[in-house]
Design brief:
The protein is α+β, with helices and mostly antiparallel strands. It is built from 14 helices and five strands. The radius of gyration is 23 Å and the shape is elongated.
Length: 298
């Protein structure tokens, strides 16, 4: 179902040389005027001269130049890419019917879609990772999918229902806020990292679908994604909480896998002799015991 659009006033239609056949521009101006700054997560002290958002604010939220966004409203640019439309949907906080209408009006330029990336972890990397009995280790793919993990990492993440993707673990799984003790910092850094990946691979279907899923299901992710901030990374020392062994203070190291561009090897280590090191030993023992109980008898 598509919500019918109310006509704009003649003064708005005539702004900046926009012609009356410019349905896309009218749509953008209307929804820009309807979106309050606080809805978009903007702090705007003082009195404002325009209703809703300004052009430069929409452009910033969508990661576009102000000039390019102005051309969209003026009708001088009528067919933005699907990626651009997706960012405008987020910036203007459009619901599903309005988003569908924006896609219809924009008739976005369709780039040749890459086939879904099939990511496999090399056997050599798996052997290396599984050789670390006392170090949690896992492999991340392009879209932050957890492609593989060793038994200790599996035990560390055992409380998660969403254990297939780090972003889902952080934003969609209730266990995330308890597991990541510095959750807000972890969430912000994860979004910044995802944005960097998205800029490098704008046509990656799995990544686009992940951003869409998280934007719909997690208001917090949607706000962070709209901020367009980058440059933040997860601290090397992180605090985690596990229901069986308590709080852990671990160092986090990330390694690029040269033989598989886009894949990352992540490991956690504890300071030797520390309570966190003892907790990892206990967790490894519990994991081994659990595996032994589930092993089929001869």
């Amino acid at each position: 179902m598509v919500i019918p659009l109310l006509p704009l006033s003649p003064s708005l239609d005539a702004m900046d040389g926009a012609d009356t056949s410019n349905a896309l521009g009218r749509f953008l101006r209307r929804h820009r005027a309807l979106t309050r700054p606080d809805q978009a997560g903007l702090q705007t002290p003082g009195r404002r001269q325009v209703p809703g958002l300004r052009r430069d604010e929409v452009a910033r939220l969508a990661g576009l130049s102000t000039g390019y966004y102005a051309r969209l409203e003026q009708g001088r640019q009528r067919h933005p890419s699907r990626q651009t439309v997706a960012t405008l949907v987020q910036a203007l906080r459009l619901d599903e019917p309005a988003a569908a209408e924006l896609y219809r009006l924009a008739r976005p330029v369709v780039r040749r879609r890459r086939p879904a990336r099939v990511e496999r972890v090399a056997p050599e990397v798996l052997r290396l990772m599984h050789g670390w009995a006392d170090v949690p280790a896992y492999i991340l793919g392009w879209s932050q999918d957890v492609l593989a993990h060793n038994p200790l990492a599996g035990a560390l993440h055992s409380r998660f229902a969403y254990d297939d993707n780090m972003l889902r673990m952080i934003f969609l799984d209730p266990a995330g806020r308890e597991f990541f003790r510095d959750w807000s910092e972890t969430a912000r850094a994860a979004v910044a990292e995802l944005r960097k990946i998205a800029l490098m691979t704008p046509d990656e279907r799995s990544l686009t679908e992940l951003v869409g899923e998280l934007s719909i299901k997690s208001p917090h992710f949607q706000r962070l994604w709209a901020e367009q901030k980058s440059g933040q990374t997860v601290r090397r020392t992180i605090r985690l909480s596990h229901p069986e062994v308590g709080e852990l203070h671990l160092s986090r190291e990330v390694f690029l896998i040269a033989s598989a561009p886009g894949q990352l090897l992540v490991i956690y280590q504890a300071e030797p002799g520390s309570p966190s090191a003892d907790a990892l030993v206990l967790l490894a023992t519990l994991a081994a015991s659990d595996l032994g109980e589930r092993a089929p008898s001869a």
